[in-house]
Amino acid sequence: MALNHVTDSIFYVGVNDHEIDLFEGQYIVPNGMAYNSYVIMDDKIAVMDTVDINFAQEWLGNIAEVLGDRKPDYLVIQHMEPDHSASIAEFLKVYPDTVVVGNAKTFVMMQQFFGADIAPNREVVANKGTLELGTHTLTFVFAPMVHWPEVMVTYDAADKVLFSADGFGKFGALDADEDWACEARRYYIGIVGKYGAQVQALLKVAATLDIQKICPLHGPILTENLGYYIEKYDIWSSYGVESEGVMIAYASVYGNTKKAAEMLAEQLKAKGCPKVVLTDLARSDMAENIEDAFRYGKLVLASVTYNGGIFPFMQTFVHGLLERGYQKRTMGIIENGTWAPTAGRIIKGLFEKSKEITWLDTTVTIKSAVNAANEAQIAAMAEELMK
Ligand code: FEO
Description:
Blueprint: E1 10-12, E2 15-17, E3 22-23, E4 27-28, E5 33-35, E6 38-40, E7 46-48, H1 56-67, E8 74-76, H2 82-85, H3 88-94, E9 99-102, H4 104-114, E10 122-124, E11 130-132, E12 137-142, E13 152-156, E14 161-163, H5 180-192, H6 196-206, E15 213-215, H7 226-237, E16 243-251, H8 256-270, E17 276-280, H9 286-295, E18 296-306, E19 309-310, H10 312-323, E20 329-336, H11 343-350, E21 357-366, H12 372-385
The structure holds MU-OXO-diiron.
The site of MU-OXO-diiron has 8 residues, from helix 2.
């Protein structure tokens, strides 16, 4: 099998997972998942991260092919989440003399997951600390909360490669033919979305480096047009509006709230709104819905009032937005309730602490079914959204 070169001396040894049902226990991944790992061949040899435990043997086989009759000197652990760390013990069974490289927090987590004896040979690195391999010198840059506290990324000045840990990753195995931004955005917003400030800090450091290739722990190696990917990350991590448009997310029981949402969508389209996303929160992927809410600049929430609160799927959706720091958006409400429509008041209360939320003047309040007054409210809301 041909070796999978990243550069003359850096090799890809990761694996594709098409067996997984839910990534991180919650995200559907119709095209599977890739767990990336790399080998840097030099006077000393470093392996960058491990893979999910179900693929340890395949990964070790990939490593053995690259190594030939040599042995690795270092196993660098950039992130302790088990999709990248679970195969440390399997690796050390084969290569027991390898020095495991991490930071102080890495080794605390390693002990918690795998016990105190897991890595007897270890090197604890500091932020901006280096590891000399020969031609390659690895510089470790701590990136706390991108996506866990111990995360660090690694820069190789020789080949101008950034090993970016979870950063710039995406859902989907590497043999899946799919758009990068779609699954990278769903991955980023879902998994790292809460930590925009920390990603911004990392982007500032990255801007000082000459980077020609980005090697993430998930998704393809990025080799061209890096500005495109960095710009996406800048927008996402600063909670900026990526695309002009309106998302209408509804939670409906008998179809009356849905009807109002559809009427609004039709009117926006008729007025030439650049993009209208209409979604039934009960019958769509919640991660995709949350991603869309962060993508577009305007969001209308349409919910029935339910047990004195809001409908469960709307509750889940709103919670998903709040926990990821939803902000800087224009929002509107369509509420429905047969005897006491309070969904709007409750939803607005939930966003009370969110930064820079502008509420539309118009709220659509339905009592059971859309009437003529509601139609006028929907028209007024469409008008306002197009301003
Ligand atoms: Fe891919 Fe945060 O683990």
